[in-house]
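Quick one:
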Amino acid sequence: MPETVAAVHTAIDPPDAVGAPRTAADLIARLPPDRPLLAGLTAGELRHAVAQRAAALRARGVAVGETAAFGGPNGSAWVIEYLALLTVGARPLPISADAPRAEAERLLAAAGGGWHLGDAGDPERAGGVVGTATGKEYTVRFGDAGDSERIGGVVGAEGAGSGSIVLLPTSGSTGTPKLVQRSEDSLVSEGERYRLAVALAPHDRVLIPLPLSHAYALGWLYGALAAGCEVVPVTPTALNRIGLLLAEGCTVLVLSPALARLLAERRTRQAADKRPAVPALRLAMVGAGPVDSRLDDLFRAAFGIGTARNYGSTETGAVFCGPEGLPPGCVGAPMPGVRHRLVDDTGADIQDGPGVLEVRADDADPWHSMGDLAVAEPAGLRILGRRHSAIRRGGRWVSPLEIEDVLRTHPEVLDAHVTARAQAREGEDRIVARVMAAPGLFDPAALRAHCQEQLAAYKVPDEIRLVERIERTQTGKARGPRRYRLAAQAPAAARAYKAAELLFALDDLGVLDDLDGDTDTEELALRLDCDPDALARLLAAAALLGLVSDAADLAAQSAGPDGALDFIRLEARLSRSWVTREELAAVARTGIRNRRFDRAADHGALAEVYQKAMSGDAARARARLAVRLLRPSPGARLLEVAAGPGVYWEALLSRDPTATGALVRLGRLAGDCSPAVAEAVADGRVLLDPPLDPESLPRRAFDICVVTNGIHGPGSGSRLDWLLGALRPGGRIVVDDVFAPSEPGAGTELLLDWLTHGGSAFPHVSDLIDALRSLGARVDRHLPLDSSVCHLILATESQ
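Output:
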């Protein structure tokens, strides 16, 4: 393999300071107009496109010094928008492509107001008073209640440098997100560091499948511009596209740990003779998070080269890098022009042993604390972890990253995150490991023994917790614990139960069955043996609360959805059984693994109500719709994984009695299979409840896999890798389930159901779609149904 990150720091001289480029426009201007530069655009074409867009922005009123938030997927349009804003003299504020409008407005408010460039690219004023960032922290007000939320602010105003300013949101992985000011001068310098450190040359082709809104990816964009080589930005979920681009000759691949793992796992799953060659790939650099030994070995086995390392921060850009083959946690050597030192709590230099890392990329700048503990080793600098989260045991520092690396080497562990909990005695922190493991395979004793074999005694976790999910940022960093406070709407929420209790009381009385719009309250009272005046008052209150409609307003009111009464009766039972204040408090005290629902002897009465609500007429209509969209061939093989009676089997058998396959019922509320499915089971056409695990589930055996009312777990219904592996090449997967909204609103209460008697995998539909794409599936259709929390997602296995 060619040398990728080597001692080239002095082999290539930096450009002469006089007339050196200070902006991206300077970097592009010095290139030949016909030089391929941006995913099919030459340098001349890019300059022309940027000039046109800048003129359009000026015409709409975007002016010098104003902040402009913009998003969108990775690609040429993103780069053109960014460069055009700099050309105008505005302050670009890149936001995540999937960020909702509300998030963009919060960030703009934190920056003092400005412009929001929507999907169509039309600038709109947003975020309060338009102005420029001042480097202070803002308190932002939202909503009619006037509640305020401090969301960080703009940091780094001092020493931001000359020239245009870019505002970069931090990930929030270590606390409240901030906006960081970076001068374009500093971004150009970072690009030059990349050029020198990894010997970027005009013949290179740099593939960036990370969000350009992230500082790490943006720094690499400047690196490509500094070298005058072609840069190809693509969306992180476009795994097929990334594979094709590598096969077409990309030489440099920019990665986060999470994306490196996905690409390596996907390539490993491909048959050796079907893996496209990557003939020109010379450098795969991973930044924005630590690389453990399992990931490095996996990537090397898949692509033939190991992972080079990169280290920096939003405030400084990249400051360290190292070649492939470094030990876990090691980030190599300082990049050209970067000075560093390790200091103790007093700021004094440390010559030997761990210390807080400080860097300086320019002798005119002050020392900048990276907030990480580090130690110098022969292979280079090793990062021990964040200073505020590092662990102190018996006067010795313990690296959370080292423990996480060991945990992930255990075959049952899918992910891990290690933190410290302060003890009464200073310097004796308690080590807490949160572990994500495959369903049914978690053995804390075996995992502890594994740690004892691999770690010194003082590094072994005191507590190992099983969690369903470790929340991470877009680039794969584990998020720190969230902080909460009582919200202004809490008193209103405390009263909300009264509306539900009123609705349940009306059902108990038999009122809801007789609400036909023709029967008056006196006749209802007589029929149901109620007091006429009291019943009239109850119904009047229900009308004011929007629970029922007065006959005079029926024309303006929409009727309740099909099956509404079944859902009301399910919620009525849950309000007295599994979603009560007592059960929620009990789960908080004892943990999800010890919840009472899973230990209860019988759920027969609840199961009946549950199936009426979740597998009724509406569910059967969704199944018929999905089968029509799938257009299965005669004799199709179906695997249905469901907490229900097999509504998809019903729909398929009604069209094709020759279909064969299996039905796997999940959970304690699934009940019996329907008569039509029971007949197919008796005939041997449908196998009932086979084991759903990698050893027992036939690979490449099914044409269609359906997961209905089971994607959230707990259990194997959430194991998309297993289910996709059961499909033949080109097979289809359907997910039919309810999902919590990504923004506060109706449906959020589902999180409480999943806490007390369900599972929490893929809480939002975007989580599921991202997971399907990360496993190589092509998402064909996403159908939110009837403005409800039900969604149909159809995807194709594309391995």
